[in-house]
């Protein structure tokens, strides 16, 4: 058996070094240097595991359902409260917008063109300051037959939006038939929105519900 040759004094000296606060502090400092490295490798592993997986945000939209129930003030006169009963009884666009939204600014001139073409657009002013929203409409013109003030954003969330602008095509029975994420422009108006709205308008003129097969084809 091998015997230790250390004297009691030497053992006490080694033990005191092990318990030395400075020595322990150095060890803790070294451990802290390892934390960023561990976090980095953890992030690499997470990103690797996400490779090839879908990254789209899935939301519950009101598509093919009635416009969600609401009771909110009118932007131009907050003493007035409106509900679903005040919405148009013919097909219309429901446009979610905000003065703070850069893409809304880009979209706005085209909405003005649609209003001149006789398209009925109801605005949902989303999480906006009233003064800023009214100034925005004063500068660029008001394409909306009415603007609902959704300052808390709950109505927009009930619609299933992910941001602004977003537009919903609503039929004469108040059912949402199409959801456009992002701005409406001449291209997607001609390709998607106008065909859908035309089918809904034809059914409304005949006092009939829209043909679901046509709706599926034109409003997809």
Plain-language structure description:
Helix 6 (186-205) packs antiparallel against helix 7 (212-218). It is built from 7 helices and 7 strands. The protein is an alpha/beta fold and 220 residues long. Helices cover 45% and strands 18% of the residues. A 5-stranded mixed sheet has the order 5-4-3-6-7.
In short:
This protein is α/β, with parallel strands linked by helices.
Q: Topology, please?
A:
Elements: H1 8-18, H2 21-50, E1 71-74, E2 77-83, E3 92-97, H3 102-116, E4 121-126, H4 130-140, E5 146-150, H5 154-159, E6 166-170, E7 176-181, H6 186-205, H7 212-218
Parallel strand pairs: 3-4, 4-5
Antiparallel strand pairs: 1-2, 3-6, 6-7
Helix pairs in contact: 6-7
Task: Pick out its properties.
220 residues; alpha/beta; five-stranded mixed beta sheet; two-stranded antiparallel ribbon; 7 helices; 7 strands; globular
Content of β-strand: 15-25%
Enumerate how many helices there are, as a single number: 7
Query: Based on CA inertia axes, which overall geometry fits?
Result: globular
- Strands, count: 7
What is the residue-mean pLDDT, rounded to a whole number? 83
Segments where pLDDT lies below 50 for 5+ residues? 44-59
The helical percent reads 40-55%
Give me the secondary-structure category.
alpha/beta
The H/E string reads: HHEEEHEHEHEEHH
Largest sheet: 5 strands, mixed
Name the strands of the widest sheet in spatial order.
5-4-3-6-7
Q: First CA to last CA: what distance? A: 86 Å
């Amino acid at each position: 058996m091998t015997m230790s040759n250390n004297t009691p004094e030497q053992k006490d000296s080694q033990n005191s070094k092990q318990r030395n606060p400075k020595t322990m502090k150095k060890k803790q400092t070294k451990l802290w240097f390892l934390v960023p490295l561990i976090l980095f490798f953890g992030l690499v592993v997470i990103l690797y595991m996400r490779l090839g997986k879908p990254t789209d945000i899935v939301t519950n939209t009101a598509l093919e359902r009635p416009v969600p129930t609401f009771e909110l003030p009118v932007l131009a006169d907050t003493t007035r409260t409106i509900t679903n009963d005040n919405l148009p009884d013919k097909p219309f666009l429901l446009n979610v917008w905000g003065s703070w939204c850069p893409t809304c600014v880009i979209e706005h001139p085209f909405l003005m063109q649609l209003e001149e073409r006789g398209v009925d657009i109801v605005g949902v002013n989303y999480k906006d300051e009233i003064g800023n929203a009214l100034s925005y409409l004063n500068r660029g013109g008001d394409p909306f037959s009415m603007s609902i003030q959704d300052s808390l954003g709950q109505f927009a969330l009930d619609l299933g939006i992910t941001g602004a602008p977003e537009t919903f095509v609503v039929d004469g029975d108040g059912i949402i038939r199409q959801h456009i994420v992002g701005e409406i422009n001449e291209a997607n108006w001609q390709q998607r929105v106008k065909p859908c709205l035309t089918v809904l308008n034809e059914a409304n003129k005949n006092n009939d519900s829209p043909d679901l097969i046509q709706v599926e084809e034109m409003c997809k």
